[in-house]
Amino acid sequence: MDYVIAPPAQASLPIEGSEQRFPLRRVYCVGRNYAEHAKEMGFTGREDPFFFCKPADAVVGINTGETGTIPYPPKTSNLHYEMELVVVLGKGGRDIPVEQANEHIYGYALGLDMTRRDLQGESKKQGRPWETGKAFDKSAPMGPIFPREQVGDLAKGAIWLDVDGVRKQSSDLSQMIWSIPESIAYLSGLFELQPGDAIFTGTPEGVGAVVSGNVLTGGVDGLGTLSVKIA
């Protein structure tokens, strides 16, 4: 193919225990998917799930046992962490039944939905899109993918995050308002999902601000830990 400019590199993630990598297509994020986090953001109840996107090139892949680095982003004074379980799809589809949704999952990874909360808040007040608050460069650090065939279907298990060794978020995957299969099924009614899509499944309560020099360490049972330093 003769392009007029060099095409960008394919965004991808390492696969735990393999030399292969997983190519990323789209990155979807479920908003307010833990009841206690919904409350701390001023919402209650099991409202229909809603989604926003981050660009695939906002993902920063970090290997197990390493501490990755992301810069403190510009135009904000209120950078927040949101620890999340991420699912990646090995099979796509439209209008996927809930009972078949897990069959579309290739694997799971740890992810941080970094958020310029002040910019997001201003967008909310003005009824504008969230891209400036959510979709900035390097806003999605992620650990390696653990294949579903190795770890099974994740419906419960601890999810947590520490900042400089102090526990800030602590919950269980079972506390999701919309389960992983329900989120996949609902999302597939809005978009035709494809292999390579990733879905951030929401964050528990305890989100907060970080500053340059902080080290964020989070995990989900069975998926190791993700460690990120704010440069």
Question: Keyphrases for this structure?
Answer:
231 residues; alpha+beta; 6-stranded mixed sheet; 5-stranded mixed sheet; 5 helices; 33% strand
Plain-language structure description:
The protein is α+β, with helices and mostly antiparallel strands and 231 residues long. The protein contains 5 helices and 18 strands. Strands 4-3-15-8-9-12 form a 6-stranded mixed sheet. The chain starts with 11 loop residues before the first strand and ends with a strand. The model has no long low-confidence stretch (mean pLDDT 96).
Short description:
The protein has 231 residues and is of the alpha+beta class. Helix content is 15%, strand content 33%.
Write the layout of secondary structure elements.
Layout: E1 12-14, E2 21-23, E3 27-30, H1 35-40, E4 51-54, E5 59-61, E6 67-70, E7 79-81, E8 83-89, E9 105-112, E10 115-116, H2 117-125, H3 131-134, E11 140-142, E12 146-147, H4 148-151, E13 158-163, E14 166-172, H5 180-190, E15 198-200, E16 208-210, E17 215-220, E18 225-230
Parallel strand pairs: 3-15, 5-11, 6-18
Antiparallel strand pairs: 1-2, 3-4, 7-10, 7-16, 8-9, 8-15, 9-12, 13-14, 13-17, 17-18
